[in-house]
Amino acid sequence: MALKLLEGPESPQNTSSTTSFLSSLSQKRRVDSPSLSSSPLSSNRRAMAWATRFLSAVCFFAAGVLFAPDVFIGDRSGSGATAVTAAKVSHLLCFATCWGAALWATFIGGIIMFKNLPRHQFGNLQGKMFPAYFTLISACAAVSVAAFAYLHPWKAASAVERYQLGFLISALGFNLSNLLVFTPMTIEMMKKRHKIERELSIGDEVGWSKNVKTAKSNPTLAAMNKKFGMIHGLSSLANILSFGSLAMHSWYLASKLEL
Fold first, then answer.
1. pLDDT digit string (tens) for 154-203?
2. How many structural domains are present in the chain?
3. Range of the structural domain that residue 251 is part of
4. What Å distances lie between residue 153 and 70, 80, 91, CA to CA?
């Protein structure tokens, strides 16, 4: 290098080759380094952002149909017969999806996974599944509210129909509270507890045995368990209340069937 400096400036050919080498090296680094926009975390956030926008649009539409059905969908007489049939189909399909998903996730799928998966693996899976689950049932509940409100406008509805609309709105409210408030708090608290448990070399077992035993001698883990239990309890309560509201509406629909 010193010899080159003594000899004088590099020739245009050497300068061009150096520039070309640096340019190729820079391009290789850009290819080798993962882009932030293509990371799984960024993709998940974009997907959740779009899901939130879609759910917000559905909820606003449901509110519009609830308070002004003729403005949003049209008159139910004459050519509106097709709209009535479409509303009935939408209500039944969305209610059935919401009811079935809630039944499976609450009483079947979650219990089976908890009893057969390592606890941290189970928690991470739930952390991915629950936002999608609450987005799905919230969207379905919103469509059910809109369809039922269109079929039974509040001013002309009977007392029973108003109660049923109230049950559907309650289910939507509980699902939204879980999606927007309790589930994010639960996931955040779960990750903090997982970090503490990894430092204590627990969490790879199935069930709660090691956690309960270790918490008796570790105040930090005991305090984290208490916070997690409170938030998770509120989330579970909202989910059960939503399921109960859907159960009441299923009883109403069954009374209307002629088999």
1. 888 999 999 999 999 999 999 999 999 999 999 999 999 999 999 999 99
2. 1
3. 84-259
4. 9, 15, 15
